[in-house]
Amino acid sequence: MTGTTFFVLLIVATAVCVIGTMVLWSLVRGPRPVRWLLRFVMIGLCQLTAISVVATWINNDYGLYASWDDLLGRNNAAVAMPGPPADRAKFNHTETGLLDTYFRGRHSALSGQVVVWTPPQYNEARYRHTRFPVVLLLHGVPGGPASWLEHGNMPGDFERLMNARVSHPFILAMPTVDPGGIDTDCTDARNRKVATWMAVDVPELISKKFRTLSGAKGWGVMGFSTGGFCAARLPLAYPKVFAAGAALDPDPLTGDQGVIGDPEVRKRTSPTYMVRHTTAPVGLFLATSAQDRLSPPHYIEQFAQAAAGTPVRTQTLVLPTGGHNYNTWTRLYPAAFSFLSRETSAPTG
Predict the structure, then answer these.
(1) Is 2's pLDDT higher than 80?
(2) In CATH, what number does 92-343 get?
(3) In what order do the strands lie in the sheet with 219-224?
(4) Matching SUPFAM superfamilies, A to Z (predicted)?
(5) Contact, 175 vs 144, CB < 8 A?
(6) How far apart are CA 338 and CA 99, in angstroms?
(7) Which residues pair with 176 in a beta bridge?
């Protein structure tokens, strides 16, 4: 459903319908009502295929649905299939050179997928004793870790930034943001400890399986949309785990009533409230576009004002153009990774 082949087939089908309608329009025979009925059918097919092309293009761009089951609501299980604990989880090599696993967190009791990319230096002999910083890449909702690969041009875009010395090398880890399909805006809800999954279980897994730097200066987090909200929230909630975050077109930083119904809980777990009351010296990069109606700049401006006078170091960026999509998010990569590099430690050892 998200593949190029399906998209091309739809374009071809649309072209065939349009050309066929033009050719057959005057050739239709039979009684007048039958002729008009057939012509209406031809017009309907042209419209249906054209709408399908546009809908598929939007889906591919936003990563809204990954499969037909996802679209039709057949992937609605609230609890993910339990995975093995971190010490027994095995990373499998994918065809694209990435590492992929599925595990169950010891602290959150949640299970989910984690995709990892290691920089080329990680496997070079001269770096065999070197430990690397980590950046968690958090996808939007709906979406999944594959969103970064299929639509976010990762890890290719980051590798180019690294080679251009815009950023120092990071291990990139892409965990599931909503284990079991339940979105909590990276908070610990009742029976759904997503914050614990993200800030305790996932770092514990990565630290056990890879040569990572210890301490908060060895860890950053970056996300878009819902993942951007999480990237602003997690360093404030867990400053001993994450030294920095980069929020790209984050969901409203005052909280989403569609996710957290209780207004008091929503307020106290929102990044804007948390930054006003924090004593954590973390770094946060927040960016959006002046044209993004889902992540308007005033939320970032409000956050920056709340952060003033606190130990939090903020950097904001508002692009003049761009919507709530991957084209905008990828344009923010250079500034975001440059910021994360300044706020975290370089590989050492």
Answers:
(1) no
(2) 3.40.50.1820
(3) 92-93, 99-104, 111-117, 171-175, 134-138, 219-224, 244-248, 283-289, 313-319
(4) alpha/beta-Hydrolases
(5) no
(6) 25
(7) none
Q: Both tokens of residue 112?
A: 């989910």
Mean pLDDT of 71-96: 72
For the chain, what is the mean pLDDT? Answer: 91
Q: Number of H helices and number of E strands within the chain?
A: 13, 11
* Encoded tokens for 316: 């904001």
Tokens of 318: 């508002």
What confidence tens digit (pLDDT) does each residue in 287-309 have?
Answer: 999 999 999 999 999 999 999 99
Beta strand pairing call for 134-138 and 219-224: parallel
pLDDT tens-digit map of 176-185: 999 988 899 9
Residue 143 identity: G
Q: How far is CA 192 from CA 89, 96, 105, 206, 220, in A?
A: 21, 32, 12, 21, 23
**CB proximity list for 240: less than 8 A, separation 6 or greater:** 216
Judge contact between 206 and 219, C-beta under 8 A. no
Domain boundaries, the chain: 4-72, 92-343
pLDDT in tens, 132-191: 999 999 999 989 999 999 999 999 999 999 999 999 999 999 999 999 888 999 999 888
Residue 77 tokens read as: 């299980």
Residue 179 in tokens? 């284990």
Cβ-contact 185, 193 below 8 angstroms: no
**Residues 212/171, Cβ–Cβ less than 8 Å:** yes
State the Cα angle at 45 between 42 and 46, rounded to 5°.
Answer: 90
Give pLDDT, residue 6. 83
d(CA 220, CA 157): 18
> Residue 138: phi, psi to the nearest 5?
-110, 125
CA–CA separation, 229 vs 221, rounded Å? 11
Q: How confident is the model at residue 69 (pLDDT cuts 50, 70, 90)?
A: low
In 3-state terms, the chain is what percent helix, strand and coil (to 5)? Answer: 45, 15, 40
